[in-house]
Amino acid sequence: MSFHPITGEAGPVGDLVLMHDLSFIERRSQDTRKYLIILIASLGVMIAFVTMIVAQLSWRGWVSGAQALLRGEGLVRPLLPPSPELAPLAADLRERLRDLEDEVRRGQRSLDGWNAERLQSLLRTQLRGDQVIVVVSNREPYSHVRQADGSMKVLRPASGLVTAVEPVMRACSGTWIAHGSGSGDRESVDRHDRVALPPGEDDYLLRRVWLSEEQEQGYYYGFANEGLWPLCHVAHVRPVFREQDWEHYRQVNQLFADAVVAEARSDDPVVLVQDYHFALLPAMVRRKLPKATILTFWHIPWPNPESFGICPWRSEILEGMLGSTILGFHTRYHCKNFIETVDRYLEARIEHEHSTITFGGEQTLVESYPISIEWPLPEETREWPTPEQCRAELFERLGIPQGHRVAVGVDRFDYTKGILERLNAVERMLEKHPEWQDRFTFVQVAAPSRSALDEYRAFQERIQRATDRINARFGRPEAPVVRLLAQHHEHDAVMRLYRAADACMVTSLHDGMNLVCKEFVAARDDERGVLILSRFAGAAREMPEALVVNPYHVEETADALHQALTMPPAEQRERMATLRSTVQEFNVYRWAGRMLTDAARLRLRQRVSERVQRHSGD
Ligand code: F6P
User: Fold this and answer.
1) Of 449, 417, 422, which is closest to residue 235 (Cα–Cα)?
2) pLDDT at residue 587, rounded to an integer
3) Residue 300 Cβ contacting ligand 1 at under 6 Å
4) 159 lines ligand 1 (CB under 6 A)
5) What is the pLDDT of residues 329-388, one digit of tens each?
6) Which residue in 2, 190, 199, 258 has its CB near the most CB atoms, within 10 A?
7) Quick check: helix, strand or coil at residue 618?
8) Is the model's pLDDT at 434 over the cut of 90?
9) If you count DSSP H runs as helices and E runs as strands, how many of each does the chain have, helices first?
10) 599 contacts 325 by C-beta, under 8 angstroms
11) Which of 205, 594, 155 is closest to 365 using CA atoms?
């Protein structure tokens, strides 16, 4: 017996009615399902279509959009007939777009990806045929120095810039333009002022530019290091601005810009401009080579608009830098400061969303690219002496008493590095924890730097006085607590020092990035040793597993030193392993690779739009 679903009545008639009703309802609901499916399918198609358009308008979609355009198609094909004018370029660009998309995909996929080979392949695939690369920096990667005995020595300077850029140049070839400052430099170049480097390997060319004493004094010591250096670091040393220095700075920027133009083998080279010595050069190169891709990397911090605003030539500097296609800083914070500075002092269009500035009809992308080091290769690390050997060698060389714990600092002798604050912390730690007296040695390597400047000489004297004071209080004549090694140390000697240490102190008062902390971590394949790192170094953002301190806070830094010296091996290992994987992944090839990928993208965009403009103007 069946029942009417609504009336609840039973019986034969009722059964018939019920059957009829049921089949009617079933048909209705089948129809409804059908309509629903059609509706959902149409909605799906519409959503897919809208998504496709949105994707076309996003960057990745822009690439496909450009591909479609090159095939003579619009967003919905076929809107345009294939253009014969675009045909010769299209095949080449299509291939490049594919490479570029592959590279983007690889970049998103691979976490361990960047190394010299990948950087080379990026150059081959995406910038192939383009002249890669002209690098401009003040400091040269190697200097030739004539020794007292008449022999020639080749030196690597103590410079974060050189540490980072040199491996990139080895991978990329190209030409590096820098100031020839070594006493034997002139004798070591050919008649075009060039020398192949590294010695014996000849991977790239260095073109040396010669400066007169007055030019070096005004441009390098004066405007760059007495003006811009303290201005950007805001480390309680007054910037000095002299008209004469500014004039030399301008002159030398022009000299180097002319050298770039002379070295360029095409009208659109890729030029990598390094640092605050060349704020005016990008616009100077742009005037001569309007199609060049100019990547300027500012290795030091950028201050807030108020601090920067005291520079008498603030507008000229900003305008010079905006000659760049891409302007790179270590951190987002420095990018933000720069954009706000432009906003305050220039009439420019700023697109915060895309981090671009349009000035004088040209667009500059302002982006952060945290610099790093070359991660040591296994064939190199296999040759390293063990930490125990490094320690024994150090103890013997410096006469450190057996059983001492050792902390190290490695810097240029510069007031921004917080060496005085570090020594104060060492002193305070010995006061607070007398158990470390006669059980602890602090080794400070301080490579002499810019010693022609009063401020630097005065600083060196202050450090010497602080060292003497601490040694008089806590050391013995045959076993001083602080060993101040005020001389240049080669890379290998520094690596041995890092491997010998229980802790490494990086206490910069302000630093764009700081590479000492990364080199220390790279040297510790035994996963031991503790890093104490200033929160005011750009590196602190990437390395939170260090003991992060405010170097102005002497108690905090002293406590961190005590904590480092008493940290259990398991905790050291845990922190060090994480730091090592971060630095290994975020290495210098990634730094260069990200910048060059962005450059390739912008070059391609520029070429496509030029071609399209030309085509539509026909
Ligand atoms: O890393 C910052 C930096 O200013 C580099 O630009 C420079 O090469 C380095 O410090 C060392 O300074 P200098 O070249 O004046 O010895």
Assistant:
1) 417
2) 96
3) yes
4) yes
5) 999 999 999 999 999 999 999 999 999 999 999 999 999 999 999 999 999 999 999 999
6) 258
7) coil
8) yes
9) 21, 18
10) yes
11) 594
The answer to whether 418 and 233 are in contact (CB under 8 A) is no
CB environment 5-29: b (16+ within 10 A), e (fewer): eeeeeeeeebeeebeeeeeeeeeee
Task: Classify domain 129-373+592-612 at the CATH topology level.
Answer: Rossmann fold (3.40.50)
3-class secondary structure, 167: helix
The residue nearest atom 7 of ligand 1, judged by CA position, is: 159
CA angle 508, 511, 515 (to 5 degrees): 90
As a whole number, mean pLDDT of residues 69-93 equals 44
- Alpha-carbon span 483 to 445, nearest angstrom: 8
DSSP 329: E
Helix (H, G, I), strand (E, B) or coil at 328: strand
233 lines ligand 1 (CB under 6 A): no
Residue at 151: amino acid letter? S
C-alpha 242/C-alpha 246 separation (Å) is 6
Residue entry with tokens 């490049």: 96
HSE on the CB side for 21, CA within 13 Å? 12
| Mean pLDDT of the residues in the chain | 87
Q: Is the CB of 178 under 6 A from ligand 1?
A: no
- The C-alpha atoms of residue 444 and residue 450 are separated, in whole angstroms, by 18
Say whether 378-586 and 129-373+592-612 share the same fold. yes
Supply the DSSP symbol for 255: H
Q: How far is residue 481 CA from its own chain's centroid?
A: 36
Give the fold, CATH level 3, of 378-586.
Answer: Rossmann fold (3.40.50)
Q: Which of the listed residues 299, 414, 508 should we mutate to test ligand 1's pocket, taking the one with most ligand atoms within 8 A of CB? A: 299
Check if the beta carbon of residue 578 is closer than 8 Å to that of residue 545: yes
Q: Ligand 1 center to residue 583 CA distance, Å?
A: 21
Q: How far is the CA of 429 from the centre of ligand 1 (A)?
A: 31
C-beta separation of 37 from 30 below 8 A: no
Q: Is the CB of 496 under 6 A from ligand 1?
A: no
**Ligand 1 atom closest to residue 513's alpha carbon, by position in its atom list:** 1
User: How many angstroms does the Cα of residue 551 sit away from the middle of ligand 1?
Assistant: 21
Confidence of residue 46 (pLDDT cuts 50, 70, 90): low
Q: How far apart are the C-alpha atoms of 551 and 85, rounded to whole Å? A: 63
The domain spans of the chain are 1-71, 129-373+592-612, 378-586
Buried b vs exposed e over 463-472: b needs ≥16 C-beta within 10 Å?
A: beebbeebbe
